[in-house]
Write a structure and sequence with these properties.
8-stranded antiparallel β-sheet, globular, single chain, Beta-galactosidase, Chain A, domain 5, 375 residues, mainly beta
C-alpha cells in the first residue's frame, strides 16, 4: 500500500507501529457539551487526511468531516444535538438539524410536513435522522492487504398499529483512503406492504462552496421547484458569495447515469487555477435512488449547497401520493443503497468530472409535475 508517498507491505507497516491507531482508527467518544449531551459518536481517521464523525445516536449520520484540515460538510448554527431534543412538529426538525456532511431523511416522510396530526402526521423530513442505533458493531481489522474501518448499527422507525421499518447502516473506509462509503439496508419487518421515502441530505459548505464554485453533474433535465427557484434558474450550477436574506432555491434533476448505473455529482471551488482548489463529490446509483434534488442556500451562515439523492420529492408525502410516486416494500422485503463520499483535490479530477458532464446537455423544464412525467 502507498502511505505518505512510499509503498509498504502489510508486514512492513505492522513492524513500524505498536498499535494501528497510530496510522488509522475509530475512536468512540461521547459528546458532552450543552444540548449535544449525551450523544455517542465514532470518530474515524484514515491516515491519509480524511477524518469524519459518525453520530451513533443520530442514525449513524455524518456530522463533522474534513480532508487535510478542510471541511467537507456544512455545519449549521445548531451544532450537534442529542436525539432527546428532537421536535417533530411542523418545521421544528430544523431546531436540531446539525447539517453535517450527511443527514438522513425518511423513512415514512420526506419534505414538507403532512397536515395530519395523528400517527401518520410527520414533521419535516421524518424521524429517522433522530433515531439512535442499536446492535452497534465496530470493526478495525486487516482483510488481506486492506486495513478496514467500519461501524454498523440498526435504527427502528416503528409505531404500534402502523409501520415497522428498520434501517441497518454500515459506514466504512480503509487505511490510506480519501473517501468513505455508506451502505444502507431498509427492511419492512412487518406483515403489511408499507410505503417508504428516503433522501440523503448531503450538505457541502465552505471552502468547497464559495463565490465562483460550480456544481458538476450529468443533469439531463432540471426543474425549478417554485417561483423562487424560477428566478435565476439559468445559474442553478453557479454559486454566489453569501447573500443577506437569501431565500432558498431547490431544483429537481434527472441524471444521466454511467453504464453501471452510477452518478457522480461534485461541488468544486474556483481555486484550482491558483493551486488551492478543493471540492467534494457524492457518488450513488440511480437504480437505487432514481431522483435528485439540489438545495441551493446562499444565505449568511446558512451557506450551503445540498446534494440530495432520493427516491421521492420534497413537496411532502401527500404530493407524491397524488402523483403515484411512492415506493413500497412488501412484507419482509429489503432494499439496499450505497453512496460514496470523497474529496476533489487535483486538476485531473476536475477535468475528468467535467468531461463526464460535458456528454450531457441539461434541459430546463417548467415544474415538478412536468418533470416527473418525463420518461
Amino acid at each position: 500500500m502507498d502511505m505518505y508517498g512510499k509503498k509498504y507491505s502489510v508486514r512492513e507497516l505492522r513492524r513500524r507501529v505498536g498499535n494501528m491507531d497510530q496510522a488509522a482508527a475509530i475512536r468512540t467518544v461521547q459528546l458532552d457539551d450543552g444540548n449535544e449531551r449525551p450523544t455517542r459518536a465514532a470518530v474515524f481517521h484514515t491516515g491519509a487526511g480524511l477524518e469524519f464523525t459518525v453520530l451513533l445516536d443520530r442514525a449513524l449520520d455524518i456530522s463533522a468531516a474534513s480532508y487535510n484540515g478542510r471541511a467537507m460538510g456544512w455545519r449549521s448554527k445548531t451544532g450537534d444535538v442529542a436525539p432527546q431534543y428532537y421536535e417533530a412538529e411542523g418545521l421544528r426538525w430544523l431546531r436540531s438539524y446539525f447539517g453535517g456532511l450527511v443527514t438522513t431523511c425518511g423513512l415514512t416522510q420526506v419534505g414538507a410536513p403532512r397536515p395530519e396530526s395523528a400517527l401518520l402526521g410527520n414533521g419535516l423530513h421524518g424521524r429517522i435522522g433522530n433515531l439512535p442505533a442499536r446492535d452497534i458493531k465496530i470493526v478495525q481489522e486487516w482483510r488481506g492487504n486492506d486495513y478496514v474501518l467500519s461501524v454498523t448499527g440498526t435504527m427502528r422507525d416503528t409505531v404500534v398499529f402502523a409501520e415497522n421499518l428498520t434501517l441497518t447502516r454500515t459506514v466504512s473506509t480503509k487505511l490510506g483512503e480519501s473517501r468513505f462509503w455508506i451502505h444502507d439496508v431498509v427492511t419492512n419487518e412487518g406483515f403489511d406492504k408499507t410505503d417508504y421515502m428516503l433522501l440523503y441530505h448531503c450538505n457541502i459548505g465552505w471552502p468547497a462552496l464559495d463565490a465562483g464554485s460550480e456544481m458538476l453533474s450529468p443533469s439531463r433535465l432540471v426543474a425549478p421547484r417554485d417561483a423562487e427557484a424560477e428566478d435565476g434558474k439559468e445559474n442553478w450550477n453557479k454559486m454566489d458569495p453569501p447573500i443577506h436574506k437569501y431565500k432558498e432555491k431547490c431544483y429537481y434533476h434527472d441524471m444521466a447515469p454511467a453504464r453501471d448505473g452510477s452518478v457522480t455529482v461534485a461541488l468544486v471551488n474556483g481555486g484550482f487555477s491558483r493551486g488551492n482548489g478543493f471540492g467534494v463529490y457524492v457518488k450513488y446509483n440511480k437504480k437505487e435512488l432514481p431522483r435528485f434534488v439540489e438545495w441551493k442556500q446562499m444565505g449568511e451562515q446558512d451557506y450551503v449547497i445540498g446534494f440530495e439523492p432520493c427516491n421521492c420529492g420534497v413537496e411532502g408525502r401527500q404530493i407524491d401520493e397524488e402523483l403515484g410516486l411512492l415506493h413500497s416494500l412488501r412484507a419482509g422485503e429489503s432494499k439496499s443503497f450505497t453512496l460514496e463520499f470523497g474529496a476533489v483535490t487535483t486538476k485531473e479530477q476536475v477535468k475528468a468530472l467535467k468531461a463526464q458532464c460535458a456528454k450531457v446537455k441539461p434541459k430546463m423544464v417548467g415544474s415538478y409535475q412536468e418533470f416527473v412525467k418525463k420518461p
